[in-house]
Specification:
420 residues, alpha/beta, six-stranded mixed sheet, four-stranded parallel sheet, 17 helices, 18% strand
Amino acid sequence: MYRGVSKGFRLHIGIFGRRNAGKSSLLNALVRQEVSVVSEIAGTTTDPVEKPMELLPLGPVLFIDTAGIDDEGALGQLRIEKTRKIFDRTDLAIIVAAEGEWGPFEQMLVDEFRDRQVPVLVVFNKADLGTPSPEVISQLESQELRWVFTVASRKEGLDQVRDALVALAPEHWLKSRPIINDLVPENSLVILVVPIDKEAPKGRLIQPQVQTLRELLDGNRVALVVKEHQLADALRRLREPPALVVTDSQAFAEVAAQTPLEVPLTGFSILYARQKGDLEELVRGVMALDRLRPGDHVLVAEACSHHPIEEDIGRVKIPRWVEKRVGGPLRWQTVQGHDFPEDLSPFKLVIHCGACMWNPRELLSRIWYCRKAAVPITNYGLAIAHLVGILPRALSPFPELRELVSAMTADGVPRASAAK
């Protein structure tokens, strides 16, 4: 958490370019602090350097200074691999070129981000020592790329950089996706079911619960927070039914049993699948659970690094439930943080956590990788809802997705298509 705003709620701005192009100098100048080491020696930045700040009118952003991606040698290759992982969570890319230099390397970066639909700002740094040729300017114009000139060491051109960043910010960032308020009318009552178990952090709630509660309050909705065994009593005390019940996915079965069928029900993890990723893609992916066979390889991906407990959701509970459904053991692999296999071909399914600590870009990148590899991906909440037999009900706030589930066979293909 930075200044009360988590990384997941910050616009991630990655700074990329050759070694010694002035990336670190640009970051230091933008944030007005010496957060990155600056040296005339190429390759000084070894690991990505992150710096959160408020950049008005965008609000909270996270600048990420990367190692020169043209690095050499074995150590250089490790730096490059770390830098490439930043691609996956970059919402807006700055490509720094020194002294007007522009070649296939810089164009490769542009092409990579264009393929990912990430906006790009070109910064020609060290403009006092050289500027791009008319041919380069013409090439940028033909691609509708925005560029500015800077001398970061003298803090020249920074206003132009900030103006360009504001102009290029993704539209969805300026109007971020809601978690819940578009699903329930103002002044309506929502019940949040929050189990307090071994995995609950001492003295506080987990981020999805806090952020959902805060959004409800900001939107003038009424929130009632209960533990799972208190839900039935809370419902009896109400004069009228709630507009929605939201639960931790691990309590889906218990909460569904206590909630009247006419009351819409969903989970925090499902709300986050929509807010941070592609809910329809993850719903399609969950159907792959029905295609698994003993011995298949399944990847569990967790956004956060943590010490697993005895009944860890991703390492113990979900594997146990899935293997019971499949009727035999599966081969499980777990990754944490920003680690993610480049080769997804061995896997029959990827099951991801809710990614509550991430920005949407990184989760969307993983969905993109899985789509390219033709490997289904889903998340914890959807998987649990399907495993306990309440997936259509857990999607009750999203009628179009309920219809999608009912129209799909176990192969994840609409019946009309499968019949052809």
